[in-house]
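Database export, one record per block. Field names are fixed; values are copied verbatim from the stored entry.
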Amino acid sequence: MELRDRIISAALEIFGENGYEKATIAQIVERAQSSKGGFYHHFESKKQILDEITKMYLDEVTKGCMKIADDPDKDTVYLLNNIFEAVNNFKKQKLSKWKELMNLYSHKDSEYIRMRMYIEFIEFIAEIYEKLIKRGVEEGIFSLKSPKALARMWANEITQLYGQITNVLINGSDKELYDDFISQALFVEDIINYSLGSDIKMISILKPMKEYLDMAIEVMNETESGE
């Protein structure tokens, strides 16, 4: 492993174990088996490493979505649902690192980075949705005049729902928040399907997001009980 990759790997471990704010460059240097000179050759600060880790996460999910969207052998509705499933499954895979991720992003330095990631993800996923919605219109599956507007709304609402999931998890066993999330997810699902102009519900939002939320609650409870 190259030194730059060793530094990122070491930083990710230490951020997860100790929390980003408590982690020191000296700890990262020691675990990466580097020198301070080697560290500063590649990175200016802890914040820059966090930025790189965030970019890695975003690249991982976007590459998976692009691979799905470019499959010419699958129908449009399948692709739209499968892209959402891919994002949802990516988040499920990260649940085993729930505590580490909270340590990574629960501090003041992460606010700008998370916001930038939020915007970049919306722009990326909206572009894919728009492309597939237009394809569905051409195929006569969908009937709407503004694929771009729907794609943007779709991307925004899904991203906000994931933020709502985080709020549910942070507040523990608040049933009202849980029920509010279920209602909102169902509403978004209904709006998307209605906007596509079909009498048949083709897009599934509530079921996969509820599965992710329930799994996240279970993982979080197991993590807290094991401390």
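Remark 1: The domain at 1-44 is CATH 1.10.10.60 (Arc Repressor Mutant, subunit A).
Remark 2: The first helix runs from residue 3 to 18.
End of record.
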